[in-house]
Design goal:
Family: Belongs to the glycosyl hydrolase 43 family.
Pfam families: GH43_C2, Glyco_hydro_43
CATH topology of the largest domain: Tachylectin-2, Chain A
Protein name: Glycoside hydrolase
GO biological process, one term: carbohydrate metabolic process
Number of domains: 2
Largest sheet: 9 strands, mixed
Number of helices: 1
Helix content: under 10%
Strand content: 35-45%
Keywords: Glycosidase, Hydrolase
Number of strands: 38
């Protein structure tokens, strides 16, 4: 699905899936966007557009999370938080905060790389949401970041630093440049994006929490302040809760636009595009008089064909598309390349096979934000008793449907689930024989991310188990996942082959 409504208008959200904490820049006629990826690998997705409405995924800037030892198992709410994307000195730069380690940076000559390995710019607990600024007028460089109270005991303030122009180190201890405890009614100030415009230093930063907050703007003639503030985007009488945290970009014709997220429960943080005007007082005006727009005139940019980040996959040569991410750093041998189509996943032996949330070898992609039908064909090639594979909807609670090899060598269709508070899964329906060791698996996902599972083992689709309401992780929307697993033991446990992964629009509600 694309975000376009007509040839002259678009409809929000323009990215209707979990592209959390977006930041955007323009380089020439091209727009680029990155987003949080937390503990999944590869991380730091890179999206491209020519009209700010139609986006495609062109790669990732972070192949593996570091240090390796910290991300051998899933850490769904850790890792890469709220990155900032910039272009300076003919290079692309991304800064992000790992709340347990500090501020990192990678850079590259082209958006598709090669990207450098992560460089730790500032070590510390609770340092999040960093954003750099190179001041072309003075040659000075700066960095601003927020704080995570869960790690540092501090929040609701922004700290500023002078930064070496090479972007490798900070030149001072930093000082608080915005203390929102001093602003009546403001709390959880975070996600700053730093700009220099018309002689002012601007910080765009949200407050009030991801589900209920607002977007603020701060301005000062000097980087270290003092800053004055104004709320520039809030829900008002719209159905867009917590409209905030994103990036400001200007088109070649001089139009200003703001891309931000909206928290939508199991769908994660979907991305909206807001027009930006300027009031007579010199402050920006976001959306329609400070409220989010549902539909609006398209940006004044050359028309582009409809496009959206890829979801479908035939897995040519056994390779998966760039829309997929592992739930931790991958290991060699989890997949096998071959000459035909189809993803050949190893049934990885695991002591945690009873709980998919603990497995690093689940291959995931984002849950679409609109009703849809997800289908994939599965063949269980493993002869290992207890080996199993399937299609999952994964979150704090999860459910999956797939095939399992029994102790007597037969294969059964199984449907399993785990509640949020459970430490292991159990059956969601009675197992059924699966002749031919094959099945076509389906999940119909309707309003409120209510999921209805069904399967076809050769005699048509039949429903399997109860309807399941998908749940998010702490900061991450629910995920679609492909998994193959086996009990602990010796030797290779065989493989499972997935073919023709498809997501199509659905009327299921």
């Amino acid at each position: 699905m694309t975000a376009g409504r007509t040839d002259t208008t678009y409809r929000n959200p323009v990215l209707n899936a979990d592209w959390s904490d977006p930041d955007v820049i323009r380089v020439g006629d091209d727009f680029y966007l990155t987003a949080s990826s937390f503990g999944r690998a590869p991380g730091l997705p890179l999206l491209h557009s020519r009209d700010l409405v139609n986006w495609t995924l062109v790669g990732h800037a972070l192949e593996r999370l570091e240090p390796e030892s910290e991300f051998t198992t899933p850490r769904h709410d850790c890792g890469v938080w709220a990155p900032s994307l910039r272009h300076h000195d003919d290079r692309f730069w991304i800064f992000w905060g790992d709340p347990d380690q500090g501020v990192f940076q990678v850079n590259a000559p082209e958006i598709r790389g090669p990207w450098t390995r992560p460089h730790l710019v500032k070590a510390g607990k609770g340092l999040i949401d960093p954003c750099p600024l190179w001041d072309d007028e003075t040659g000075e460089a700066y960095l601003v970041h927020a704080w995570a109270k869960s790690r540092s005991g501090v929040k609701n303030r922004l700290t500023g630093h002078r930064m070496h122009p090479h972007g490798t180190e900070l030149l001072d201890e930093g000082r608080v440049i915005v203390d929102a405890d001093r602003i009546p009614g403001w709390f959880t100030l975070e996600g700053p994006k730093l700009y220099k415009h018309d002689g002012w230093f601007w910080i765009l930063a949200p407050a009030g929490g991801v589900e209920t907050g607002w977007q603020g703007a701060f301005r000062s003639r000097a980087f270290f302040g003092p800053y004055e503030e104004k709320v520039v985007l809030e829900q008002k009488d719209t159905d867009v809760n917590g409209p905030h945290q994103g990036g400001w970009v200007r088109t070649p014709s001089g139009e200003d636009w703001f891309l931000h997220f909206q928290q939508r429960g199991p769908y994660g943080r979907v991305v909206h595009l807001q027009p930006v005007g300027w009031g007579s007082d010199g402050w920006p005006v976001f959306g329609h008089d400070g409220a989010p727009v549902a539909e609006h005139r398209r940006p004044d940019l050359p028309p582009q064909p409809p496009a959206a980040p890829a979801t479908d996959d035939d897995f040519p040569g056994g390779r998966h598309g760039r829309q997929w991410q592992w739930t931790a750093n991958p290991k060699e041998g989890w997949t096998t390349q071959h000459s035909a189509d189809g993803l050949r996943l190893t049934c990885v032996r695991s002591a945690g096979a009873h709980d998919l949330r603990t497995l690093p070898h689940v291959l995931t992609q984002r849950l679409p934000g609109t009703p849809c039908t997800v289908e994939v064909e599965l063949r269980l090639d493993s002869e290992e008793p207890g080996a199993r594979a399937g299609l999952a909807v994964l979150g704090d609670a999860y459910r999956w449907i797939g095939l399992q090899r029994g102790a007597d060598g037969t294969v059964h269709l199984v449907h399993r689930f785990a509640e949020t508070v459970a430490d292991r899964e159990r059956d969601a329906d009675h197992p059924r024989p699966a002749p031919g060791d094959r099945a076509l698996l389906r999940v119909d996902i309707g309003a409120g991310a209510r999921c209805r599972f069904s399967c076809d083992t050769g005699d048509g689709f039949r429903p399997f188990g109860q309807v399941f309401a998908a749940t998010p992780w702490r900061w991450v929307g629910a995920l679609l996942g492909l998994v193959a697993v086996a009990p602990t033991g010796q030797g290779h446990a065989g493989t499972a082959t997935f073919t023709r992964f498809r997501i199509s629009t659905s009327a299921y509600g």
